[in-house]
Design brief:
With about 375 residues, this protein is mainly alpha-helical. The chain has two domains: about 240 residues, Rhopdopsin 7-helix transmembrane proteins (Up-down Bundle); about 120 residues, Arc Repressor Mutant, subunit A, CATH 1.10.10. It is built from 20 helices and two strands. Helix 5 runs parallel beside helix 9. The radius of gyration is 27 Å and the shape is elongated. The N and C termini lie far apart (about 80 Å).
Length: about 375
């Protein structure tokens, strides 16, 4: 097997470097969950780059003919690129996401690929060589086309979710983020944008294969070159500014301490800021409209710890979690009634829009807060 050009040589060395980088992130620094997730992503990059480099050599077919069981293995890792990117960012920002079980659903496409291609993977070496020499059956070609479409859709979905999560995180913590924490958020945003840029290039290459369009250059060369360069950038940041890759606990700590004056959260002034912050969060985000809202949803959405919210509920709101949520829902139901929503829709539908999960609960809570059932309230006020 001969290496065709300098690009192939660079990608091959880059893949080896990427593998070492993945080991570093998985096992150091501090063995953090977000680092391990990024390490697995970088490992997936390395494995895929190797598969691409082997496939790009003019004599690469001889490699797969000699080792046919390696063919197609790297493809499953491609389906992990964007899910792992999203899970890395989420686990970096939110403590509740730092469990493997939390991300299992995101691995379904990759697992499905392995299951669907199992009839090919379990074939003998001779059968695989026959396909490599004389062409694959139509079902494999069709599934590979579907696979390209799924990867394109993953890029769109996970890029939007990642950018939205970063915006949400920074918006509700603008006054609480230290300089180093802002740098971390900026790094994550750069990371997503870089992946989006590579996705555009990779999607272009996939579309050229689907519609059979020829380019004067191979988009996949740029895509895998970009992955290698991005890994080098990560390495430079890791060496020069390791705090950006060891900030997981620091991001959480901003919810417990005010870094500006380094005073405990129990500080009265800090408690006032948290109270105002939570009121603003309820006003703008309206989390109570989610009919199965739980405390952990409020923790993740607001960024305040469970202990901090509980303290505010007891000392400032002087209500339990559910009492406060139901009060907001009742106020929302009153607003909808005043706007005439009930004239075009049923009361159960109005209850659902206000965040209640059943008509019975709606009637009971509404009467508790207003002294009347919804129907009585409408009749009494001529709405």
């Amino acid at each position: 097997m001969e290496i065709a050009n300098i690009l192939d040589l660079f990608l091959l060395f880059g893949a080896a470097f990427t593998f070492l980088m993945s080991m570093y992130l998985i096992f150091y620094p501090h063995n953090l969950f977000a680092n391990r997730t990024l390490g697995v992503l970088v490992f997936a990059w390395a494995f895929t780059v190797v598969g691409y480099v082997l496939g790009s050599f003019e004599s690469a077919r001889s490699f797969f003919i000699k080792y046919p069981h390696f063919y197609g293995v790297s493809t499953s890792f491609t389906l992990l690129f964007f899910p792992l990117m999203f899970l890395y960012i989420k686990s970096y920002l939110y403590k509740d996401a730092r469990r493997f079980s939390k991300g299992l659903l995101h691995y379904i496409p990759a697992v499905a690929y392995v299951v669907i291609f199992m009839p090919f993977f379990i074939k003998s070496s001779a059968e695989k060589v026959e396909m490599l020499m004389h062409g694959f059956p139509d079902w494999i070609i069709t599934i590979q086309g579907v696979l390209n479409i799924i990867i394109i859709l993953q890029g769109i979905l996970y890029s939007v979710l990642s950018l939205r999560m970063l915006h949400h995180f920074q918006y509700f913590r603008k006054q609480k983020l230290s300089k180093s924490q802002l740098q971390s958020v900026q790094w994550l945003r750069f990371f997503v944008i870089a992946n989006v840029f590579l996705w555009i290039i990779g999607a272009s290459g996939a579309l050229t294969e689907i519609v059979d369009i020829s380019y004067p250059f191979n988009p996949f060369n740029i895509f895998y070159l970009g992955l290698t360069v991005l890994t080098i950038v990560i390495s430079i940041f890791t060496i020069m500014r390791p705090q950006l890759f060891a900030m997981e606990e620091d991001v959480v700590s901003l919810l417990t301490f005010n870094e500006e004056d380094n005073k405990p959260i129990e500080d009265k002034e800090q408690k006032n800021r948290d109270y105002d912050f939570l009121l603003d969060y309820f006003s703008k985000e309206k989390p109570y409209l989610k009919n199965d809202l739980k405390m952990k949803d409020l923790v993740e959405g607001s960024g305040l710890t469970n202990k901090r919210i509980t303290d505010l509920l007891n000392t400032r709101f002087e209500k339990s979690f559910f009492d406060l949520i139901n009060e907001y829902r009742t106020n929302e139901a009153v607003r909808l009634i005043k706007d005439g929503f009930h004239k075009k829709h049923t009361l159960p539908h109005l209850a659902e829009e206000a965040g209640f999960n059943s008509k019975t609960t709606f009637n009971r809570i509404f009467k508790k807060h207003t002294g009347y059932t919804p129907s009585e309230y409408i009749q009494l006020n001529n709405y």
